[in-house]
Specification:
Number of helices: 4
Largest sheet: 5 strands, antiparallel
Order of helices and strands: EHEHEEEEEHH
Helix content: 25-40%
Strand content: 25-35%
Shape: globular
Strand order of the largest sheet: 3-4-5-6-7
Bound molecules: 2-phenylethyl (2E)-3-(3,4-dihydroxyphenyl)prop-2-enoate, cobalt (II) ion
Distance between the termini: 20 Å
Length: 199
């Protein structure tokens, strides 16, 4: 995996994590490369995390930093080519309410909503997707303790979008094939142009 070190974000983030944790794993924060559609690795089904340990927490820190830097409101481990069932979300205005989901599962409670979704793995494209309005979520937190919560609105959209990633599903799978193929062609073209530019 390729790491891009970002020292200015390190100090900011160190302050936040130190307040929350007894012991911060060693090593500096790192920005991770995000896979982009139609990369076939985004189709990998992630495996359950067997034990939440220091390595998991280091990965969570790097994922949060990568999400905040993008900036994005959600990131699944699949998107950084780590095929473990781990998700980070922060829909707060001030970007100071990280929600960590390890081995998340949900059940639909009720309703439907349409939301104009985007994705860090499909940069520059937004399309309306229909999902459940209200869900019940179970997951493990940063310490490996299980918790339960109800979500609706944007948070419910985000949770469903991110858990899709862990199953190899992208939001473009929920739109028409015509729109999906159009987005794919444009991204492939952009990727080729970037490769050429880098030589
Ligand atoms: C998933 O998506 C999501 O195209 C999280 O150029 C999105 O953080 C859940 C982003 C909408 C619910 C509603 C997308 C950043 C970020 C882009 C994101 C881009 C730069 C997407
Ligand atoms: Co996404």
């Amino acid at each position: 995996m390729q790491y891009k070190h970002n020292l200015s974000n390190f100090f900011l983030y160190f302050t936040i994590t130190n307040r929350q944790l007894d012991q911060q794993p060693t090593g500096i924060m790192a920005l991770l490369d995000i896979l982009e559609f139609p990369d076939p690795r985004l189709r990998t089904k992630a495996k359950a995390v067997a034990e939440v340990n220091a390595g998991t927490r280091k990965l969570l820190d790097d994922m949060l930093e990568t999400m905040y830097e993008a900036p994005g409101i959600g990131l699944a481990a699949t998107q950084i080519n780590v095929h473990q069932r781990i998700v980070v979300i922060d829909i707060s205005e001030d970007k100071n309410q990280p929600l960590i989901l390890i081995n998340p599962e949900y059940r639909i409670i009720e309703g439907e909503q349409d939301y104009e979704e985007g994705c860090l793995s499909v940069p520059g494209y937004y399309e309306s997707v229909t999902r459940a309005e209200k869900i019940q979520l179970n997951a493990l937190d940063r310490e490996g303790n299980s918790f339960e919560m109800e979500c609706n609105g944007l948070l419910a959209v985000c949770v469903q979008h991110e858990i899709d990633h862990l199953n190899g599903i992208l939001f473009v799978d929920h739109i028409s094939k015509l729109k999906r193929e159009r987005i794919k062609a444009k991204l492939v073209k952009a990727h080729k142009a970037e490769l050429k530019h880098r030589r």
